[in-house]
# Entry
Amino acid sequence: CIKANAKSCGECIQAGPNCGWCKNTDFLQEGEPTSARCDDLAALKSKGCPMEDIENPRGSKQVLEDREVTNRKIGAAEKLKPEAITQIQPQKLVLKLRVGEPQTFSLKFKRAEDYPIDLYYLMDLSYSMKDDLENVKSLGTALMLEMEKITSDFRIGFGSFVEKTVMPYISTTPAKLRNPCTGDQNCTSPFSYKNVLSLTSEGNKFNELVGKQHISGNLDSPEGGFDAIMQVAVCGEQIGWRNVTRLLVFSTDAGFHFAGDGKLGGIVLPNDGKCHLENNMYTMSHYYDYPSIAHLVQKLSENNIQTIFAVTEEFQAVYKELKNLIPKSAVGTLSSNSSNVIQLIIDAYNSLSSEVILENSKLPKGVTISYKSFCKNGVNDTQEDGRKCSNISIGDEVKFEINVTANECPKKGQNETIKIKPLGFTEEVEINLQFICECQCQSEGEPNSPACHEGNGTFECGACRCNEGRIGRLCECSTDEVNSEDMDAYCRRENSTEICSNNGECICGQCVCKKRENTNEVYSGKYCECDNFNCDRSNGLICGGNGICKCRVCECFPNFTGSACDCSLDTLPCMASNGQICNGRGTCECGTCNCTDPKFQGPTCETCQTCLGVCPEHKDCVQCRAFEKGEKKETCSQECMYFNMTRVESRDKLPQPGQPDPLSHCKEKDVDDCWFYFTYSVNSNGEANVHVVETPECPSGPDIIPIVAGVVAGIVLIGLALLLIWKLLMIIHDRREFAKFEKEKMNAKWDTVS
# Structure
């Protein structure tokens, strides 16, 4: 939106579907160009433009005519006129288009049962089709009987063609002009195209008139069938076409001439695509060339005619290629004598009616259209295949989702009309396109407004749209004054040589600041000296993400301060466990405790490596005030009056955890080696409260007699144990000595014997 450099609201909304224009007169900062009013909606809102001042018109659709598709069965008593039958819905709507914003609508198509059919049989009457003519003479009544199975309202017509009546296509000798056939064959004079029978519901009349037809002849193999097809397509009144299903059966056993072949006969004027029937004969075949295939496609489509090519096996390949170029056409194989023509027509009609193809008229410049089909059995397609549904039966309903998008506004902004219709059908959807190229506020503009420097522009949508030859935000300058050196002086700051701080251009004595590649970064100020991206940063973010950069200075959000808005005023992170800010031993700065007592540290000044705990710290004062003893007994009234003291009878009566104020339970020894119990807490007002058990727990003295008796008994027992051990050792020693004596005695006896 910013890059569009829109000078007006209309230009802005054409830049993209998400662009809006702020019409608030106080929206622009000094130095910002008028184009800064154009931005995406979120950006405008973030810059302070109220939602009610943002111009953002949206496209819409309105259905004007929406008749339901017709439901009726063949043979129903109710007979409807063709114009009363509806096969496509809706019929008429209005789309309001904004550039880049697609408008979507659904189209429903249902092939009505018992829908009227007009069939025109166009036959090649060159000599090679002689035997075919005999079978076609009874075609009328036979085809009527078959078509009654499909529709109760059927009409049939007949026409014939041969070739252009000039050399070298036919022989122009008088005799050959009277009878082009050889020998005693009686042939009619050659002709280009003849409407033998206009469309009629009388099958007998068809048989009667066709029965009177005679074969003719020509010289070359290709025939002039394209001339005949063109006349059948464009001569609606003479042929008798109704606004119903229109079928053209083209029967031949030869190829065809097309645009350019007329030069052989000296005919160079292109076919004009108009009706030239006089007395049911085509009279301009010698004057206009054959039509081109593209020209035929156009006229057949315009007149909703579906073509069935009934051709012999020899030319199947040629006409199948032609079928691929002509939408809603079919090719059938004609037997050598046309005996299978009825079945061929029935099969071709079923094939044509089983496919629906949507086409649209020529689109205005800058308008695109896309289709999505919802066919039978859950088959969905997009792009080119989204235009059609195949394998549908009469009575089946299919839907299409159609997107229409305007990619630019028409130069004059006028409305356009396009039409969408199924190929081969007369019904269509008419779509009126209305382009949103201007904002509502522009219609409320004030021409020659005093707000635009003495009436040099139109004040609209919060800004001036300058008259031709005037420029500037307020149209205060003429284009002749733009490059004046005197004007440049107004664009320099005092004691500076830089024009617009090198961040803009001096136009009409005013700085128009440059635009940055990043559209969120903006220069502003009278001399473009300000911007919103050169403020102090914290954690890699401008203003720490906690403020707005205005003229290179951070404006912090509530609860933040500092040059980079990185200082939080929130004291919650500084709250100690006792409910005091920084434990009462420091100040909270930018969400962090600055401990003023050097002994304390940590995030909340609660950690003291050299300090006693709460209990030892207050032990002496509690002892002196509660029991009038201890180290501070003499100075108790001076040093220990900083807390309120309450005596309780027992430990159960002491305050318990879970109370609002932080609480410490203490157990300490007094000077008499007795245990005393107390609690210490500080309330929200900073008052210290002590609850102490009024009676210390003193341990009883030792019982001397059991101790002495135990000691004596222990000594006696130890003595007895020592005597027993000594006695045991002596016994062991004596036994060893006796054994030694016995051994020596035995040795003495052996010595005496020897």
Residues 489 and 509 are 7 Å apart (CA to CA). DSSP finds 15 helices and 42 strands in the chain.
